[in-house]
Amino acid sequence: EKRVYLFHEGNAQMRSLLGGKGANLAEMTRAGLPVPPGFTITTEACNDYYAAGKQLSEQLLDEIRKALAELEAQTGKKLGNPSNPLLVSVRSGAVYSMPGMMDTILNLGLNDETVEGLAQLTGNPRFAYDCYRRFIQMFGDVVLGIDHYRFERIIENVKESRGVKHDPELSAEDWKQVIASFQKLVQEQTGSAFPQDPQEQLRRAVIAVFDSWNNQRAVIYRKLHKIPDDLGTAVNVQMMVFGNMGDDSGTGVAFTRNPSTGEKTLYGEFLINAQGEDVVAGIRTPQPIAQLAEQMPEIYKQFQEISQRLEHHYRDMQDIEFTVERGKLFILQTRAGKRTAHAAVRIAVDMVQEGIIDKKTALLRVDPDQLNQILHRRVDPDAQLEVLAKGLPASPGAASGQVVFDADTAEKWANDGRRVILVRPETTPEDIHGIIAAEGVLTSRGGMTSHAAVVARGMGKPCICGCEELKIDLQRKELHIGNTVIRQGDQLSIDGGTGKVLLGEVPLIDPELSGEFQTLLEWADEVRKLKVRANADNPHDAAKAREFGAEGIGLCRTEHMFMEADRVPIVQEMILAETLDERQAALNKLLPMQREDFVGIFRAMDGLPVTIRLLDPPLHEFLPDIEELLVEITQLRMTPDSDKRELLKKENLLRKVRALHEFNPMLGHRGCRLGIIHPEIYAMQVRAIFEAVSLVKKEGVDVQPEIMIPLVGHVNELYEMRKLVEEVAEQVQQETGVSIPFTIGTMIEVPRAALTADQIAKEADFFSFGTNDLTQTTFGYSRDDAEGKFLHQYVDQKILPDNPFITLDTEGVGKLVSMGVQLGRETKPDLKTGICGEHGGEKRSIQFCHNAGLNYVSCSPFRVPLARLAAAQAAL
Ligand code: ADP
Ligand code: MG
Ligand code: MG
């Protein structure tokens, strides 16, 4: 079986074999674009390598030799030939692009002899030595495992001794000296000389690229983006072209549209007289691509044409790498460009309007997970801001947090629950865990296509790059901006949309939907079958949900209403009451408050259904913490002239708290079990709901209350509660003279309810699957304990494919859901069914809900747009 393909033998369809980079290089070669020739070693070869215990087979080596011979014939150069050396790059290239996560080696084929040949051939010794030192550096780092900074330090020392600041100021002789020191370093670090045989260099580079599939950052990246671990990477071996040959050469990266906003303009950066990774690495801050139009107008024009062609060919925004060698343009890579959610939405909608793609494609182009970004908060435009500095607006959104200067601290602090802003001169792939942990990223060097910018955009994190006013002192962990000194732990804010660095914490405001976003969501509404509701327990959330397109409230929890500061004492009175009269007195005080809550929500949801869940959590959640109480009581006891009545009160309270203590509150006295033992509590809530309905009905507000009984496991529980609700509803309707249509349903959140759904449906007008509790009770995991104790390891060790509290376990919990729907509808064919767990806002779970035939999903207000899109994708 063939394991090596010359570029002209492949095409874009062969992505899984050739990797994204290889497939596109092949496709561009076929299309006649100026791509330096080369060949691709397949992902299968990578898998063979791992299967053979990290060995390259003889057969593969043979195929590589043959492809190399072809490449030599094509280029008229020869690997290792001093009079006309072929130099190649050895580039990683996975099926799904993982920018910067794996390794690439440039200028391979150089050694002590060929470098002299290159110098003579080009008449440019400085260039030749520059290439050679780059090669030793990259090979040393990637293949020999010598720390990058050791090489950098040698260069710094030479620059210092010459009294120069920038690399281009170093002469041929200087680079020669650098090379000598590099070779010494290699000898010291590895115990052998730098490998001189180009064939050996190539073999080892291929192995290193295969190995880089499993380097730590690539593994983390794959986990983050849910890319399978067994795909392997391809390796591209390609003739080098040189952007570092002088001022008529250069290298750059450009997007066919702005990846941050989606605006339709060529967007990118370039560096004159530079090679490869200089742009991405953030070592020098590059110039915007528009300036290429002035400096190399012909090249700019040609590049513009090619980029248009590529965009049309792939029907998607492209991210293109190019190099100019002595006035000639080469294209080195093209791929679908990573973009912010903002840009994704705008590009998808624009491309439909430009006739490049259809609506269906547009809907599939935007990842619902990514939408969270747009739905992020931003800096309040009316806030008083102290702007410290301005950098490049590399990834939009606002973030506030404590400053940290390294990725490890970022991760550590974030694990402790702190919000951090990662501040670095530039980031490298080694910092990825810090970027994941941080709220936002701020760098002093590098451009819009630097590592920090690309990674942050991919994750939807706010990011500012190239903020050159920052003087970062990593040693002292200080940041100097003008006269302001910011130390590790100080508060800082960044606005990635404007590039502003702000002192302290700044007020953030809720997001709004852009015009394009509305359009896309309207297209989504045309195709989706699932309705989308929101979980909201106050008028503000209800209004927000409605603005985002919610078609009702799927879960209005009533316990939050009990937890407001001024109500807690009354709620406690209610709980601590010794007699029914005492309890009723407290409930009577709560009634008008609870009524007001519903009035506000009903007004906001005028015309739409509202599902209200009666009190669910165990009562002790409203009581003080037992340990705090003990401390207070002890203090009172030890103070000689303390208030005896106060002490008695606290002691009483302690007794009650102890009496209510449960070993397993999650499985304890909660949900409808409360309503059955203390019907007066549910009666008060139902009264508040119906009184509120009659009030707003008189204002002309249309309300459709749906009363939901939580945690039913046996039909008799629902039967009792239904009777209670109907009685109170009847009373209120008689008192007010307003007739109110309503329904009564239940949550299906313990397995027994799903198993006996046919019986339960006799008493229910609707089912709402509470998949948070259903997941807890099906797995027998206590959510609060499991996540910290073992669940992460379970997912890491692949014992579970996903955290079932985030992505619905379709095989187990999902089976109960499907069974519940089916059994319920056997009893009541038009039984309304929905889901109100957090899964209702997660795309894969939404796909499941669609397939299971639910009527609606309900999720947090900010996730409503995401759910609308995910529901559409499920239907396509
Ligand atoms: P990554 O996947 O990290 O982007 P690449 O394989 O694309 O890595 O290589 C990084 C950079 O190296 C490219 O952007 C390009 O500028 C440079 N490069 C790669 N191959 C060549 C080549 N054949 N000639 C000149 N430069 C190259
Ligand atoms: Mg690249
Ligand atoms: Mg529940």
TrEMBL record:
The Swiss-Prot or TrEMBL record lists the needed cofactor(s) as: Mg(2+)
Q: Which residues form the active site?
A: 451 (tele-phosphohistidine intermediate), 836 (proton donor)
- SUPFAM superfamilies, per the entry: Glutathione synthetase ATP-binding domain-like (SSF56059), Phosphoenolpyruvate/pyruvate domain (SSF51621), Phosphohistidine domain (SSF52009)
- Which residue ranges does the record assign to the Pyruvate phosphate dikinase AMP/ATP-binding domain? 16-54, 55-291, 301-354
Tell me if Nucleotide-binding is a UniProt keyword of this record. yes
InterPro entries the record matches: ATP_grasp_subdomain_1, PEP-util_enz_mobile_dom, PEP_util_AS, PEP_util_C, PEP_util_CS, Phosphohistidine_dom_sf, PPDK_AMP/ATP-bd, Pyruvate_phosphate_dikinase
Domain PEP-utilising enzyme mobile: from-to ranges? 419-499
Q: What class of enzyme is it?
A: transferase
Binding of Mg(2+), residues: 749, 773
Reactions the enzyme catalyzes: pyruvate + phosphate + ATP = phosphoenolpyruvate + AMP + diphosphate + H(+)
Report a single Gene Ontology molecular function: ATP binding
Top-rank lineage group of the source organism? Bacteria
EC number of this enzyme: 2.7.9.1
Q: Which residues form the signal peptide?
A: none
Q: What keywords would UniProt list here? A: ATP-binding, Kinase, Magnesium, Metal-binding, Nucleotide-binding, Pyruvate, Transferase
Q: Which family does it belong to?
A: Belongs to the PEP-utilizing enzyme family.
Official protein name in the record:
Pyruvate, phosphate dikinase
